[in-house]
Specification:
Elements lengths: L2 H23 L7 H12 L11 H21 L14 H5 L3 H25 L6 H9 L3 H10 L6 H27 L7 H21 L3 H6 L6 H16 L1
Helix pairs in contact: 1-2, 5-6, 5-8, 6-8, 7-8
């Protein structure tokens, strides 16, 4: 890789290091650090000063960073929210809907609003592709949500888990919709079979993983320096990304 590529990487790393310090020293409490980092990226990027150029270093690291962010977001989710509440004697408690139900309602409202706005933009002549605009509007960036929740120390609260759940589901659904959109608009042979392979691979790996996780010899490998579980997770992530 060229020396200039490494220079761009250094600028990005230094900017990422200095941004939270500046936000803290200037006492800009209303601005989340992740938003300040986005603004800093605009300043040092092509939109303003053009100090950073896209290259192989930044491309690889940004991809790995996004993958790792999705992985960490999954670890932060309390999957008990997906379980239905047991019927209790407290009638007031039974009237409270579960996080899963609330998430479904909120995400449905987001999609309805996105569809409405997309057709408004279409009617005003601002866009031509309604489906793509629906996907864009309904997307919720985990890269903004997760750091903000952590910064506000509400990640493990009820409201924090609810916001994270909505963000993860919205991100997942919009990625699937974007894949479908790309498949529909792809030129030449439609890559639907690739999507089928990806889904089938995930199901097969889940079944095999559930079988092997109970094996006695794997319990020995999960301790010490081997950490076979962590290796398996990263192997699965890279394989799924490669298939995607």
């Amino acid at each position: 890789m060229e020396h200039s590529s490494f220079t761009s990487l250094v600028i990005v790393v230094v900017a990422a290091f200095l941004t939270p310090i500046l936000v803290n020293r200037l006492k800009i409490s209303f601005l989340p650090v992740v938003v300040a980092e986005i603004i800093m990226g605009i300043i040092i990027g092509d939109s303003l000063f053009g100090l950073v150029k896209e290259d192989a270093w930044l491309s690889i690291l940004s991809t790995l960073g996004f993958i790792f962010l999705m992985f960490l977001s999954g670890l932060e989710i309390d999957f008990n929210a997906f379980k239905s509440k047991k019927h209790s004697e407290d009638e007031e408690a039974n009237k409270i809907p579960s996080n899963l139900s609330l998430m479904t309602i909120v995400f449905s409202m987001i999609m309805i609003l996105s569809i409405f706005l997309a057709f408004v933009f279409k009617w005003t002549g601002l866009i031509d592709d309604v489906l793509l605009m629906v996907i864009i509007i309904s997307t919720i960036s985990l890269g903004v949500v997760v750091p903000t929740l952590k910064e506000m120390n509400i990640m493990h609260t009820s409201i924090g888990q609810f916001i994270l759940l909505v963000a993860v589901v919205a991100d997942l659904v919009t990625m699937i919709l974007l894949t479908v959109y790309g498949t529909i608009n792809a030129k030449g042979v439609s890559p639907l079979w690739l999507i089928t392979i990806l889904i089938a691979f995930g199901i097969v790996f889940y079944i095999i993983g559930g079988y092997f996780i109970k094996s006695p010899f794997l319990k020995k490998l999960t301790s010490g320096t081997t950490q076979i579980g962590i290796r398996a997770v990263f192997a699965l992530i890279i394989l799924l990304v490669a298939l995607a």
